[in-house]
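SECTION: protein entry
WANTED: fold as C-alpha coordinates:
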Amino acid sequence: PARMATPRTLAAMASPRLAAAMMSPVYVELAAMHPEMDIHVLADIARGVDQGLLSKREAVDMLDEIKVVAAVQEETEKALSQECTLYTSHAGGLRKQKEDCRRLRQMFDILRIRYNEVDIAENRWLRGRLSRDAGVDVLPLVFIGEDFVGTFDD
Protein backbone atom coordinates (compact mmCIF):
# COMPACT_ATOMS: atom_id res chain seq x y z
CA PRO A 1 0.00 0.00 0.00
CA ALA A 2 1.16 3.53 -0.80
CA ARG A 3 2.10 5.67 2.19
CA MET A 4 1.15 9.30 2.57
CA ALA A 5 4.05 11.71 2.54
CA THR A 6 4.43 13.44 5.89
CA PRO A 7 6.04 16.84 6.40
CA ARG A 8 9.15 15.05 7.71
CA THR A 9 9.50 12.79 4.63
CA LEU A 10 8.90 15.74 2.31
CA ALA A 11 11.39 17.86 4.26
CA ALA A 12 14.01 15.17 3.88
CA MET A 13 13.78 15.51 0.09
CA ALA A 14 13.77 19.34 0.05
CA SER A 15 16.50 21.97 0.07
CA PRO A 16 17.84 22.86 3.55
CA ARG A 17 15.96 26.19 3.64
CA LEU A 18 12.70 24.60 2.54
CA ALA A 19 13.24 21.67 4.88
CA ALA A 20 13.70 24.02 7.84
CA ALA A 21 10.49 25.86 7.00
CA MET A 22 8.59 22.59 6.60
CA MET A 23 9.61 21.48 10.09
CA SER A 24 8.10 24.62 11.61
CA PRO A 25 4.93 24.02 13.66
CA VAL A 26 3.35 26.93 11.78
CA TYR A 27 4.05 25.22 8.44
CA VAL A 28 2.57 21.95 9.70
CA GLU A 29 -0.55 23.76 10.91
CA LEU A 30 -0.98 25.72 7.65
CA ALA A 31 -0.36 22.59 5.56
CA ALA A 32 -3.05 20.75 7.52
CA MET A 33 -5.50 23.59 6.80
CA HIS A 34 -4.55 23.87 3.11
CA PRO A 35 -3.21 20.48 1.95
CA GLU A 36 -3.74 21.42 -1.72
CA MET A 37 -1.42 24.43 -1.46
CA ASP A 38 2.06 24.42 -3.04
CA ILE A 39 4.73 23.58 -0.45
CA HIS A 40 6.89 26.55 -1.46
CA VAL A 41 4.01 28.98 -0.91
CA LEU A 42 3.24 27.41 2.46
CA ALA A 43 6.92 27.56 3.43
CA ASP A 44 7.23 31.24 2.50
CA ILE A 45 4.13 32.18 4.46
CA ALA A 46 5.15 30.04 7.46
CA ARG A 47 8.57 31.76 7.43
CA GLY A 48 6.80 35.12 7.50
CA VAL A 49 4.84 34.07 10.58
CA ASP A 50 7.94 32.61 12.25
CA GLN A 51 9.84 35.86 11.62
CA GLY A 52 6.99 37.98 13.01
CA LEU A 53 6.20 39.60 9.66
CA LEU A 54 2.69 38.10 9.58
CA SER A 55 0.23 37.05 12.23
CA LYS A 56 -1.21 33.55 11.97
CA ARG A 57 -4.60 35.10 11.10
CA GLU A 58 -3.01 37.10 8.26
CA ALA A 59 -1.31 33.95 6.99
CA VAL A 60 -4.60 32.03 6.95
CA ASP A 61 -6.35 34.95 5.21
CA MET A 62 -3.57 35.10 2.63
CA LEU A 63 -3.86 31.38 1.90
CA ASP A 64 -7.64 31.70 1.60
CA GLU A 65 -7.19 34.55 -0.90
CA ILE A 66 -4.66 32.53 -2.90
CA LYS A 67 -7.14 29.66 -2.99
CA VAL A 68 -9.89 31.96 -4.32
CA VAL A 69 -7.60 33.45 -6.97
CA ALA A 70 -6.56 29.96 -8.05
CA ALA A 71 -10.21 28.89 -8.33
CA VAL A 72 -11.06 31.96 -10.43
CA GLN A 73 -8.06 31.30 -12.69
CA GLU A 74 -9.10 27.67 -13.08
CA GLU A 75 -12.67 28.63 -14.01
CA THR A 76 -11.39 31.25 -16.46
CA GLU A 77 -9.07 28.75 -18.13
CA LYS A 78 -11.88 26.22 -18.26
CA ALA A 79 -14.22 28.75 -19.90
CA LEU A 80 -11.56 29.80 -22.39
CA SER A 81 -10.82 26.19 -23.30
CA GLN A 82 -14.44 25.54 -24.21
CA GLU A 83 -15.39 25.81 -27.82
CA CYS A 84 -16.74 29.20 -28.82
CA THR A 85 -18.90 29.24 -31.95
CA LEU A 86 -20.03 32.28 -33.90
CA TYR A 87 -23.03 31.77 -36.17
CA THR A 88 -22.84 34.39 -38.90
CA SER A 89 -24.05 35.11 -42.41
CA HIS A 90 -22.11 36.21 -45.46
CA ALA A 91 -25.30 36.99 -47.36
CA GLY A 92 -26.44 40.54 -47.97
CA GLY A 93 -29.68 41.19 -46.19
CA LEU A 94 -29.55 43.62 -43.34
CA ARG A 95 -26.56 45.95 -43.42
CA LYS A 96 -26.44 46.05 -39.59
CA GLN A 97 -26.36 42.24 -39.39
CA LYS A 98 -23.49 41.98 -41.87
CA GLU A 99 -21.57 44.75 -40.09
CA ASP A 100 -22.19 43.17 -36.66
CA CYS A 101 -20.82 39.83 -37.90
CA ARG A 102 -17.70 41.53 -39.25
CA ARG A 103 -17.17 43.60 -36.09
CA LEU A 104 -17.63 40.58 -33.79
CA ARG A 105 -15.05 38.55 -35.72
CA GLN A 106 -12.70 41.53 -35.58
CA MET A 107 -13.23 41.94 -31.83
CA PHE A 108 -12.62 38.23 -31.16
CA ASP A 109 -9.46 38.37 -33.29
CA ILE A 110 -8.14 41.44 -31.44
CA LEU A 111 -8.87 39.81 -28.06
CA ARG A 112 -7.35 36.56 -29.32
CA ILE A 113 -10.45 34.57 -28.49
CA ARG A 114 -10.43 31.30 -30.40
CA TYR A 115 -13.67 30.58 -32.19
CA ASN A 116 -15.26 28.49 -34.88
CA GLU A 117 -17.35 30.38 -37.39
CA VAL A 118 -20.38 28.77 -38.96
CA ASP A 119 -22.00 30.62 -41.86
CA ILE A 120 -25.70 29.77 -41.70
CA ALA A 121 -26.85 31.97 -44.58
CA GLU A 122 -27.93 28.99 -46.69
CA ASN A 123 -29.19 26.76 -43.89
CA ARG A 124 -32.70 27.90 -42.91
CA TRP A 125 -33.30 24.85 -40.72
CA LEU A 126 -30.19 25.49 -38.59
CA ARG A 127 -30.91 29.19 -38.39
CA GLY A 128 -34.46 28.45 -37.20
CA ARG A 129 -33.24 25.97 -34.61
CA LEU A 130 -30.57 28.36 -33.30
CA SER A 131 -33.06 31.24 -33.16
CA ARG A 132 -35.44 29.07 -31.11
CA ASP A 133 -32.63 27.93 -28.78
CA ALA A 134 -31.28 31.45 -28.33
CA GLY A 135 -34.64 33.18 -28.20
CA VAL A 136 -33.50 35.83 -30.70
CA ASP A 137 -33.67 36.10 -34.47
CA VAL A 138 -30.58 38.17 -35.22
CA LEU A 139 -27.04 37.37 -36.21
CA PRO A 140 -24.34 36.93 -35.14
CA LEU A 141 -25.09 34.43 -32.37
CA VAL A 142 -22.39 33.48 -29.89
CA PHE A 143 -22.40 30.07 -28.19
CA ILE A 144 -19.91 28.61 -25.74
CA GLY A 145 -20.32 24.88 -25.91
CA GLU A 146 -24.08 24.36 -26.07
CA ASP A 147 -24.88 27.55 -24.14
CA PHE A 148 -26.11 30.69 -25.88
CA VAL A 149 -24.05 33.66 -24.66
CA GLY A 150 -25.48 36.52 -26.68
CA THR A 151 -25.40 38.55 -29.84
CA PHE A 152 -23.08 41.36 -30.93
CA ASP A 153 -25.28 43.89 -29.13
CA ASP A 154 -25.03 41.94 -25.87
The mean pLDDT is 82. The longest strand covers residues 84-88. The helical segments are 7-13, 16-22, 25-33, 39-50, 56-81, 95-110, 124-134. The chain is about 55% helix and 10% strand.
